[in-house]
Amino acid sequence: EVYFKNLSKQKQKEVMEKNGNNHKLRVCVATCNRADYSKLAPIMFGIKAEPQFFELDVVVLGSHLIDDYGNTYRMIEQDDFDIHTRLHTIVRGEDEAAMVESVGLALVKLPDVLNRLKPDIMIVHGDRFDALALATSAALMNIRILHIEGGEVSGTIDDSIRHAITKLAHYHVCCTRSAEQHLIAMCEDHDRILLAGCPSYDKLLSAKNKDYMSIIRVWLGEDVKTRDYIVALQHPVTTDIKHSIKMFELTLDALISFDKRTLVLFPNVDAGDKEMVRVMRKKGIEHHPNFRAVKHVPFDQFIQLVAHAGCMIGNSSCGVREVGAFGTPVINLGTRQTGRETGENVLHVRDADTQDKILHALQLQFGKQYPCSKIYGDGYAVPRILKFLKSIDLKEPLQKKFCFPPVKDNISQDIDHILETQSALAVDLGGTNLRVAIVSMKGEIVKKYTQLNPKTYEDRLELILKMCVEAASEAVNVNCRILGVGISTGGRVNPREGIVLHSTKLIQEWSSVDLRTPISDALHLPVWVDNDGNCAALAERKFGHGKGVENFVTLITGTGIGGGIVHQHELIHGSSFCAAELGHIVVSLDGPECLCGSQGCIEAYASGIALQREAKKLHDDDLLLVEGMSMKKEEIVSAAHLIQAAKFGNTKAESILRTAGTALGLGVVNILHTVNPSLVILSGVLANHYVNAVKDVINRQALSSVKTVDVVVSNLADPALLGAASLVLDYTTRRIY
């Protein structure tokens, strides 16, 4: 009630103006069975009574259209509602598969109906499998959903279905304060939740004044008195069909022994319902003088029957919800309604495993009169719901927003995880240096160790082990948990076996080397090994410009030229682990000789070694140094001197760098025409010197369809180490590699 006191008339006026003064809210009400119609009918009458605000479309599906369940669609017609569409959606069967198939059939048929109706909002009730199909269809077709009776708790698969519909629904009408709190706890927007009460209570609380004796006589016989008969309504529990059928059999035996006139209603359409009907027939219930077995009772008359019964027994939600309005004693059997709020009129027999237990419950409850309960409503739900519907602004974004509570960073309760940062040992085997680092999950280099790379296999492996052991010991002191070892090395690598197949000339005695076994045995950690170019690409994918990019290429421009190709988020290794040897793309048939033995490779033009070679030639011819430059006598000529000379205006140095940039650009064009990436990342010490030249060559030489590719310089300070670490960290975060 507080909600509506706070809802000003001005807001309604503003909403009407936003929606257009002449626009009526087109409401589709879909009803699946007799139970949900009892809740939806009062709302439908309310909508129909205000044609200046609403247009009503009624869709009927589910058990309404099945003869075995009383063809209950007729009561909708008797209430003078025009049924827009009838959908036969029930697949006959006696197991869970039939329910699934029924949902599937509804999902197939509903889109056409909703396309034709184009409602502004669909009203869905409850927790039945049919309702899940309705909500799913409407949500996927961008139709707003108003869910009735969300947030409640019960003890079957209905719970899961009800909460699933809640997550699909845009607006919620709940019946109790607890249900409202449950919806808020499920992160639903409080402004879109209405605590209205149950719509059926609007009818229940005004129902006692009618001529009830004639109704009782029609259904139970002329000689029956008020408070001297029983209403039984029991459904199968789909999560434990066998037990629920046994419980129904015990219930019927107890009712036969209790020897009171009893009205037994057929169960809902659920897995196991046919077996329950067979149990009734096996015990002769339909022909027993004390029993009346019926498929359906109109809701108006059903209200009178339960209001004046001596007791109601079964596991229907009606027993714990609606019957409380009359104070009629109820025996709730089993777990189907576990968690529902109930009045004092309800006696629970959750473990109804013997006839005597049920019979004893009947003896305790029959004929009592309890105070009326208004837990589920006060008789004014429909006016609140109509007012809520009028307040809906159709111009608000359709996309739901969930109100998640503020949460702290996820902290594991395992003491090791609390105290330690998950990390990797990263090893980079370069032509000059051997480096080992502790790298955190976020890509932070916690500690780094550097040594000169030994020239022999034995010394190199011994140094790797020594440095790794030292780093692993230090990891304890800096609160890092080492998850594994990742190794980046030059040459051709079999990452599946952790073997260096062939190395570059920069690293001697480094072919057919098993790195995984000795390091794993020494450290008792998993070990991953890959080519340095591939590791650079992995570093970009996890920490750099390649994060979230489906297809990209990384080019390393350093001592040599290497790289890696990521296609559909995964690294390409090739059939013989030779993919992405990008430095050996040939860009000239008669170019300079490459270390690989070929001629005209990118590496022969643009690598640090190639630039050093050209710098030496200029220096030997006394053409390198220009005004502003100086070199010590013992200083070794390097690529850096060539770059410096170009900056100081040395035209020959400029020409060499221009040729190198062009060669690299032509290689990139070949890559674009081969794998068509959306991004090219230049990495390494020479990247900044080449990026503009590469872009110029792409603009001149590439096909127009690939000219839009982004070419960027890596922002990672140490891609080789980060890539080696990502070999480990990607695995620990369950990436496929």
UniProtKB/TrEMBL annotation:
Residues binding an N-acyl-D-mannosamine, per UniProt: 492, 504, 532, 581, 584, 603
Residues reported to bind Zn(2+): 584, 594, 596, 601
One Gene Ontology molecular-function label: UDP-N-acetylglucosamine 2-epimerase activity
Pfam families listed in its UniProt record: Epimerase_2, ROK
Pathway: Amino-sugar metabolism; N-acetylneuraminate biosynthesis
Keyword Transferase applies: yes
Localization in the cell: Cytoplasm, Cytosol
SUPFAM superfamilies referenced in this protein's UniProt entry, alphabetically: Actin-like ATPase domain, UDP-Glycosyltransferase/glycogen phosphorylase
EC code(s) of this entry: 2.7.1.60, 3.2.1.183
Location of the UDP-N-acetylglucosamine 2-epimerase domain: 53-390
Catalytic residues in the record: 532
Keyword Thylakoid: no
Record text on subunit structure and interactions: Homodimer. Homotetramer. Homohexamer. The hexameric form exhibits both enzyme activities, whereas the dimeric form only catalyzes the phosphorylation of N-acyl-D-mannosamine.
Name of the protein this chain belongs to: Bifunctional UDP-N-acetylglucosamine 2-epimerase/N-acetylmannosamine kinase
The species this protein was found in: Pachyramphus minor
Lineage, uppermost ranks: Eukaryota, Metazoa, Chordata, Craniata, Vertebrata
Gene name linked to the record: Gne
